[in-house]
Amino acid sequence: MRHGDKINNLGRTAAHRKSMLANMACSLIQHKRINTTLAKAKALKVFVEPLITKSKEDTTHNRRVVFSRLHNKYAVTELFRDISVKVANRPGGYTRIIKLGNRLGDNAEMALIELVDYNTTYDVKAGKKKKSTRRSRGGKKAEQAAAPQAQEETTSEA
What does the subunit section of this Swiss-Prot or TrEMBL entry state (predicted)? Predict the structure, then answer.
């Protein structure tokens, strides 16, 4: 029984799981987004977010700790050089999981996992609009139509 066991074993041995998560993390760091199954994406999020947090402080110790988990010096370099600069002000939540539906072959739930700061589609600052209500009579259109008329009256008087 797996009472209270928080690790999703993904049907693999410990060595295979660690190797797979390290490879997926390197791919995520290199490509900024990858498609995978939902279970693997959730396991990868738990694996990669502490590494990104460690990359925010560039010390030899942190580089060695991250390298011991990733086993790829190019991914470690990319993480400490580029990604850590982008996530410097973010207190956590560096990745986003988007569900994509089910795979045709085996009906597995698929997901896209991506680094949040590298996607401009979901940019919160750009996506916010001013709240508008439908209660008012006239609204913006009436104000815009009234503004040119007011300008014409002031120019004709002068």
Answer: Part of the 50S ribosomal subunit. Contacts protein L32.
